Amino acid sequence: MARIAFILLCHKDPDAIVQQAQQLTAVGDYLAIHFDASSSAEDFNRIQTALADNPNVVFAKRRVKCGWGEWSLVQATLHAVEAAVETFPRASHFYMVSGDCMAIKSAEYAHQFLDAKDCDYIESNDYFDSNWIKTGFKEERLIYRHLFNERTQKWLFYKSFELQRQFRITRAVPDDLQMMIGSQWWCLRRRTVEMILEFAAARRDVMRFFRTTWIPDETFFQTLTRHLVPGTEIENRTLTFLMFTDYGMPVTFYNDHYDLLLGQDALFARKISGEAQDLKMRLGALYAGGRTDFTISDEGRNLFAFLTGRGRIGRRFAPRFWEDGTSLGRDRELLIVVCKKWHVAKRLVAAIHQHTDLPALDYLFNEDETPLPEMGGIEASLEKRGRHRRAFMRLLFDHYETDKMLICLDTASIDLMHDFFADKSKTRLLEIECNFDDDYLKGHAKRTGLAGEETNDATMARLLPTIHHDMMHQREAIRDAAFPDTERMRETASAEENAAALARFLGVNGDTAQLLAQTPHLFVD
Question: 327 with 67: CB under 8 angstroms?
Fold first, then answer.
């Protein structure tokens, strides 16, 4: 059975640290604490006194003053790891946490999870090829020596950097190391940790190199683990659930995130608000509770992206030059069926196939699995289709040897509609207006990863109005665009009214339009 030694780096809130230590060790796991030497000595004494009788807690023998982006964070981690390895010989795994982390699964679940696969859990991506660093310094983190703290000694940090760059004072990465990068929240096996400590003691050249790299807590353990352990024994992921805002700041979790956190595919979460006392109490009880029946929906990141993205409607990049200069053809006619309920549009398209000879494709810009002919690779992904939308459609017209074609789009694809209507070709649009009840909205939330099986009624009740409002916003955006040659079918309209709209849209006779409008079960969910 796995036994975890948690490596806790902390610098504040002694009462919360004591509570966290008691919760994590209550079921037999261990804890090694490094309390920042820059913090209050009184606070440190309070922690030591409160945990003095707990045999499953040990303190790093040396405390260092920690600074963001500095080697000191790695040094503090190594001191805590050394204390844990020496004090807890039965520990099988070493799990890095902070004072803001809390378990989102039970200890029994965590132990079973770690027993199930003999591997290390650490993000370890190639430093140069992975694009893990989105902005700012990349190669500069490594080839220059960083002797000052960027946050507290900003002028010295950048002056030192500029002088090194001006005089071309650079250094090489150690020859035998492939530099890796990833999250600092890892879970490593005992033999991996012991190999890292042995390597650190033997390779002073590597230690000197990392001491003056910038943000080494994202590269040190990640590089050495990949260097010392076969790739087949590394799971390239963190077991700590965390998210970041568009500004690079960690997302904070509060009392009403309990059900969401339990559904994530992780053992811990960061970062828990210091004010979320109810959440801390419930998660603390959870770790010792023995529950193992967790349903993993993993909707957290999708849900966060959805909710934070609502205010950014319309902020699109300009069309690429090849899109701007490419036309479907002046004599061609593109028919667009727009519907939020994809199954409704697909039923109508199937009926159109049956009663006309019009080439028609389902949601080719919204759905990966849309059947498409081979077209030299442009059809291979949604990203390529969307990036080269006009060229892609022109190829489809040529493939089907037609000047008239029908496609389906989601109501959210307003940018595609604008682009096609701006083309020299003739474009028509048919909007299918459907009703959305709560059952459909719940299903939509689960299908799109905004909710999971464990999402409770209260959370769902708060989410559904947002989803419904988003769908209504998309509908209004289409109306506000005032596209020419637009028709509308409605679930609430009569078959005669819908047939008239279809006749005008497709250019078919009344009898054919009536058959299409009476497609069996057209609006049934």
Answer: no
